[in-house]
Amino acid sequence: MSEKKLSVRLNCPMPKLDFDVITLGHGSGGLLTHRLLDAGVFKLLENKYLNEQHDGAFLNLDGQVAYTTDSFVISPVFFPGGNIGELAVNGTVNDLAMCGAIPQFLSLGFILEEGLKMEELWEIIVGIRHAAANAGVEIVTGDTKVVEKGKGDQLFINTTGIGKVHPEAEINLNRIKPGDKIIVSGEVARHGIAIMSVREGLEFETDILSDSTHLNYIVKKLLDELGKQVHFLRDPTRGGVATTLNEVAARANVGIELEQTSIPIDARVEGACEMLGLDPLYVANEGIFLAIFSADVADKAVEILRSDEKGKKAEIIGTISTEHPGKVVLRSSIGGRRVVNMLPGEQLPRIC
Amino acid sequence: MKYLSEYRNPELVQEYLAELRKLVTRPWTIMEICGGQTHSLVKNGIMDMLPQEITMVHGPGCPVCVTPLGIIDEAIYLAEKEGVILCSFGDMIRVPGSEKSLLEAKAAGADVRILYSPLEALKVAHDNPGKEVVFFAVGFETTAPANALSVVQAREMGIRNYSILASHVLVPPAMEAILSDPENKIDAFLAAGHVCTIMGVEEYIPVVDKYEVPIVVTGFEPVDLLQGILMAVTQLEKGEAKLENQYVRVVKREGNRLAKDTIREVFKVADRDWRGIGTIPVSGYEVGENYAEYDARKKFKLNLAPVGENSECIAGEILKGMKKPFECPNFGTKCKPEHPLGAPMVSSEGACAAYYHFAGVS
Questions:
Q1: Interface pTM (ipTM) of the complex?
Q2: How far is the C-alpha of A97 from the C-alpha of B169, rounded, in Å?
Q3: What is the CATH number that goes with domain A3-165?
Q4: B53 and B195, same structural domain?
Q5: pTM score, two decimals?
Q6: Among A48, B163, B247, B323, fewest CB within 10 Å belongs to which?
């Protein structure tokens, strides 16, 4: 293993280790586990909570808190625009933000597969460090387990997060009212297409990058300025915009009207979707969110979003209606209408 | 998205619709052959925009829908065989066979891989010399050249652990089968643009002449479809029956010679079972004697007992345009995309799935 090459790649001090790959011993709780944690996790993610090296973290929280958990099993673990570590931080940060909370503390659980390259693990932990620093959250507790080769897919990560709810936030499905406007904060389908472009058997050449990022600051900005006028927030990750809006329509028992021509999409992503036979409305996102506002502040909300780098492409894409409760209806670019259903199973590429 | 956006122009769409409304004087039933056309009609909400007099019927041009149970069972049998990697186009893997789907076989441990091209499967074979790789070669004339090419290349590269499970079907015999049914209600056809890109248009002339039915070779974008429908209705209103080509920017009269030669080199025409329709003479391709060692049926000596269709599924009547999906008692109740009784509910190109997704707007 060449330290010189790695230090260039990682931009961080490379700990001396005896193994190039993860072995079952690294999950034994013994010396190897300690070496792995001391040299790697504790050092790279250092903060006063982790320095305690206790079984758990002592936190001071008052008022209402939001609490969420998410597991990350993405394949491949490195993809254009990020890696599983960044995704694991951003995903949980964003779930807290969608609750109207200010994310503060994260736990970090690794399930490593025997044989995972040490070099790749460090790169992922560096990704976690960057993502946590960017989002302003601290990793305060964690766990590492190792499973036998063949019983995992390189590594799985679980993160759990806690954040204080913004004093002005009141995000709830029951606040969605007919006439409300639906806003998307950016271009759809980037993450899913970036992943698809490197998945075995489906690879194609493209410069599309995942949109994976933290959304807590832009959401805070919205809440600071519009407070309770923000009725609902949700990030359309798995299943994409179509699935998220179907959930909203069903649970809030409202109809949703979407305008296809208003939905922002990068021309390269749209082209890839055409080529692959995928509907971009069902493709996963990791760096955008859907927000529902009363109609009178929707334009203002778009203005606030567009003033932020992460919301530059924000658009009003639809309206909440009293018609066809439980259903999402799209007005196509040529003026026809169709129901946008919940995805039955995985979105499968079509033959022709 | 140049070359696509022009054919999605809302103003042009409105112009064609206005012309159609002016022209049409009585009810007409038009069948679009290709599942890709069905998908586009549904995705763009076009059926809702057409004048009431025009009924679109979804034809048998969805390869997923017409692949018989027996062949799906063969694919599942191969996938579950020790040492076999079965590669397939995506939407085939959810189609129920007589007991399960490829997706369920995969969940139970079979090595099933979703690919976009048989040439990718060839790569899988190259990279896994200890395994047998089978490509589930489904489709109409459109996918036949690439499937044939994979076999030609396998031989050239000396790859011996590769074979295809051919399940190719041909459009013109299926049109004849529909037209020769006295109960059929089809006044005109939109022929499948992609199929004609490969095969050309000449094989449709005898069909037009024999059955006096207008056939318009049509593309897939909204403007293509509306122009194709307009051309068909113009003929019908004038009492004409001709072969016309709307998709001139892509389809040449003689088709793609190189692709046709590759098909001829590898495949031979054979009788074929169509799901829901039954056996249609000379309506499919199977691997010819020259390439017998790449024929999965021969390589694995497939000889599964024939299986009957699910009696609750009326796919045959749907695919022949005799019934609409919502006329089926199981539509949307016992049969849904997540639990399909038959293939037309599986693929987004399938007539039943198309209607299911469309239901509830109008």
A1: 0.78
A2: 52
A3: 3.30.1330.10
A4: yes
A5: 0.85
A6: A48
